[in-house]
Amino acid sequence: MDSARRSGTPGDPTPVDAPGGAPTGDGGAAGAALPERSRAGTNGTDPVVNRLAATVARLRRQVEQAQFDADGRSVIELAKGVLVERLHCAPAEAARQLEDLAAETDLPVLHLAAEIINQAARDQVAEVTKAFLTQASGGRSYDDPEENSGTTVATRLRTAESGVLAAADTQAVADSLLTHALRPLDAVSVAVWAVAPDGSMSLAGAAGFRADEAARWHYVPPGVTTPAYKALLERQPVWLPSFAETGLPSVGRHDTPDGGRVAIPTGTGGRLTGVLEICWPGSLPPRSPQIERQLEALAQLCAHTLETRPAAGLPGPALSDSAYRDLTELIDLVDGLYDPALVLRPQIDADGHLIDFRIHHTNPRFVDPVGRPRSSVTGALLLEAYPLAAGQSGLFDKVERVYATGEPFRADDTLLTTLVDQVPLTSPADISISRHSDSVLLIWRVKDQADRLASLLQHAQRLGRVGGFEENLATGEITWNDQMFTLFGLRPTATPIPLTQLPAHAHADDETGIGRFLRTLLHQRRSASTAFRLKRPDGIIRHLRVVAEPVLDGTGHVLLVRGAYQDISAQHWTEVALAATRDQLAHTEQQAAENNRLTLKLQRAIMPPTRGPLDAAGLRVAVRYRPAEDDHLVGGDWYDAVVLPSGRVLLCVGDVAGHGIEAATGMVVLRNALRGLATTGAGPGQLLRWLNLVAHHLTDYVTGTAVCGLYDPGTRTLEWARAGHLPPVLVRDGRATALPLIGGMLLGGPPDSQYEEGRLTLEADDVLLLYTDGLVERRDTSMGDTLDRLLVTAGRPAPSLEDRLDHLLTHSDADTDDDTCLIGIHLPPS
């Protein structure tokens, strides 16, 4: 225990500083001094300092706003990911859809993103938002479109969640929770406590407290009754309306003495890892199920930064003043030793019987034989950490005897046995066990460094599945290590197999390779290696590699052979699996290429790249279709221009989300369905409503966009509607303009979606352009800028309608490798 911690006493439960601990909380000492100086400047004493303080305050607000914007962008990016998955569209299309939805619902983009995440996640944050909405709407359903009062709650919780997931430590988690979720609830500070197995607590993160106050409460010994301790003991949230009336100590008790507090335990899988403590300057917010769920959701956000700590048990009984001082002095003594040492505390059951010892402390010299860090051993029970202590070595019995009698025990050359991956490792050590008050001190010193090196080598051989051997050809003596017997499937008492008998234990097909290996090794007296299949006595065949070298005597004869065997079965089967995977991948690629060719033929049979001008009811209609540059990206763009039985002309373009056979078949379904529906004489808005029902009910989750127009040659009027598509472009008198962006959801959306209609009367020599986004969309440019460039290109003079369409395709700077459909409608002068 550090010196600062020693200055505390059980009689005064206020914890003390950890030495060298970095200040935590809201601001540091330097930051706290500036407001005092700035107030002096406000009184006219120091205007220079006043200006500097104002600058610091302004920069701090900018930093906080930048952090909030960054967290908000994380929420928006996550919502875009949900749209990409659901709509099977590109990120750019998802961003555009999110903006369109926000505009149509009259919600900020950040609030709408939080609502989309809630609907996709259905987690505890979503349930909290649902509860707030239900309360605000007087019991109406969460999906009631007229209520959005819980949007702020969803946005705050999702923003806090994104900050927690991006946080590097628990301190950053505390800052994010206070900034995004708790200050709107009028809370002024928050503390995240990490709970140790012995019931002690450490302040893992704090925000809103003074730096010196957070440093004083860096550590809380076991048994000190604080709000966090009560929450841990009761395993449920503790609400304290007036903190001063409780008389309990805790961090910030002098800052908000009359305020309220809430302490909520947190953990995963029933395993408590910490406590979230929230402070208010005055009374607590109204305690409602909605507020309780929100605070519990915030507590769970802290769990992922604490879940790597050891499991926390229920706190033990409080220590007396003398026992606490004795334990503190013992820990100080142990930390000064040069040998590994453990401080053990007895574990007593309900009947008062000793069942085990808990490892309360490990000194800096402690090195676990298994290689585990000190933090994973500290707090564990002795028999859980070292189960063999109750067996061959009898270490547990010796510790128990010392604890019962108080007589110290010391022994040299005691064998300590440790279980490593079911492999027992034994090493001699000097042992010292002594009792100090109610604790037991266990010290051991490993006798020989060579034993530690041998243990390390044994670990390396076990992990690498390598066994070493040495064979004396003169005496016939063969030495194997333990791993060799494991590789050959023999008992440790079995007779080792000589190299000359190796062919009898190998697969018949490998005898030639083994013979070549033996001739090189024994006759040519050179190092050699080979791989073979070993037939073990248990019937298992393993793939081994043997590497050996000869050791020559003074006359040049082979005296002995030493080498190693390695089990390469996993590598062999991995190579076999990779070869099979490559074959299957080649077959899959061939099938995919064939499917893509068929899809491409289907698409181009229905949508030819060019189509001659069509004279229909006084209109000249020309079509251009440009497939994607990458033939593997067969898309779902489509167009249609046909004269209906009523004499009106159907003009439409569309874009089905996705690529491949699904997009192509979805395109065929929507195109043919629209043709059939258009014969009913309905308007374009009604046609798109029906087409949305077709996409919703009669396809496999097809989504897409479309523009549908009906031209009446008698009145020269074009009625049109859009379903999430880009607006048509009108070229009149040498000037190109985009038609108004009327409302309409994309196809495959809600079944009750409505579509507005627009009306346009064509004049002589007018040109109307319908197109898909493959003509204009760029990854690095906003859609508004690309549309402006399209208007400039479309307004340039052209000798004919076909030349105008070809010019648009030639000068298109789109870079998304998407299909492009383009329809041009020209009303010639009479």
Automatic annotation (TrEMBL):
- ANTAR domain ranges (all copies): 56-117
**PROSITE patterns reported for this sequence:** ANTAR, PAC
Compositional bias per record (Low complexity), positions renumbered to this chain? 8-21
Transcription as a keyword of this entry, yes or no, is yes
**What are the UniProt keywords, alphabetically?**
Hydrolase, Transcription, Transcription regulation
InterPro entries per the UniProt record, alphabetical:
ANTAR, Bact_Sigma-Reg, GAF-like_dom_sf, PAC, PAS, PAS-assoc_C, PAS-like_dom_sf, PAS_fold_3
The record's SUPFAM superfamilies line, in alphabetical order, gives:
GAF domain-like, PP2C-like, PYP-like sensor domain (PAS domain)
Locate the PAC domain: which residues?
528-580
User: Segment Disordered: which positions?
Assistant: 1-47
Q: Which CDD domains match?
A: PAS (cd00130)
Please tell me whether the keyword Transport is annotated for this protein: no
Top-level taxon in the UniProt lineage: Bacteria
What the entry lists under PANTHER family is as follows: STAGE II SPORULATION PROTEIN E, STAGE II SPORULATION PROTEIN E-RELATED
Name of protein? SpoIIE family protein phosphatase
